[in-house]
Amino acid sequence: MKITADLLMMHDACYEQVAEVRLLWPDGVEPTIDVLAEAAVEGLDPWWLWHLLPAEGPGSRRAYALWCAKQVAHLSGDQRVAQCLAVVRRRVEDPSGVSDEELHAYADAAAYAAYADDATYADAADAAAACAACAAYAYADAYAADAAYADMRGAQLACLSQLLCEVEP
Length: 169
Hints:
By secondary structure, this protein is mainly alpha-helical. The protein has 9 helices and no strands.
């Protein structure tokens, strides 16, 4: 799959992102880790590209969100985080095997774990719990993961790049 300005327009990307992609890569570009890193340096938001992934199943937005959450899950000792991620993993493996209601119940529990002690992301465990909830709702909350584990940005870009390269145009 090539990232092109037209592809971004089809997916309702913001005007600034489309214009910058058109300037940087007039003929499009493969979504390699180097390209995503260059996009970030140029002020583009490479995290927006995860919208190009399918919503469910292996290689999906939910799978990427799960990957991000798993990178910081060890920072939380709260069992609700592990339970939420187990349910999300089941949903990624078999989208029809976990109902939205079950998924949201576990997401709510993980989110509550993040806010149980206070109403801020004051520590890594809070951010880990928030990431678990984000994975359940299929948000790629890379920024919450970064708050919990500062050197993850390169790994996140690599994972996103790999998934984007696997997407059929």
